[in-house]
Amino acid sequence: MAKRDAIFPADRHALYDVHQYSAAIRSGDLLFVSGQVGSREDGTPEPVFEDQVRRAFANLRAVLAAAGATFDDVIDVTSFHTDPQTQFDRMLAVRATEIGDPPYPAWTAVGVTWLAGFDFEIKVIARVPAAANATAGKG
């Protein structure tokens, strides 16, 4: 089996080490990004829901950038919500400022009962641009 090509953003937050996971794994031209939450650098959650969602998107952008990708390269999204009935409209308002123009990626939203102290999590699969793949492993 080939060694995992782990991707981490430059400002790697504490949760990666505490929970022992990679921010993303690159496999060929695909990037599998672990669930990103609205954590501060020390791993604690943003207390205000909308700020937590914004921070989760910021953390996601940092992981994508570390692989040479942007949200435009995202093809599939799964988001997790602890209280979708009361949070969904507020999440959609933040999402509208984050994801750009159509065509939108495929998106599945899932209601869950536990996110380790967080209320929102987002994970994606992206296709890494050819230029970023050409420079992978160099540097």
Q: Could you give the topology of this structure?
A:
Blueprint: E1 5-7, H1 15-18, E2 24-27, E3 30-37, H2 49-66, E4 74-81, H3 84-98, E5 106-111, E6 120-127, H4 130-135
Parallel strand pairs: 4-5
Antiparallel strand pairs: 1-2, 2-3, 3-6, 4-6
Helix pairs in contact: 2-3
Descriptive report:
- InterPro entries: RutC-like_sf, YjgF/YER057c/UK114, YjgH-like.
- It comes from Bosea thiooxidans.
- GO terms for molecular function: deaminase activity.
- It is a single chain.
- The protein has 139 residues and is α+β, with helices and mostly antiparallel strands.
- The protein has a single domain (5-130), classed as 2-Layer Sandwich (60s Ribosomal Protein L30, Chain: A).
- Helices cover 31% and strands 27% of the residues.
- It has four helices and six strands.
- It has a six-stranded mixed sheet with strand order 1-2-3-6-4-5, with helices on one face.
- A hairpin with a 2-residue loop joins strand 2 (24-27) and strand 3 (30-37).
- Helix 2 (49-66) crosses helix 3.
- The protein is globular, with a radius of gyration of 15 Å.
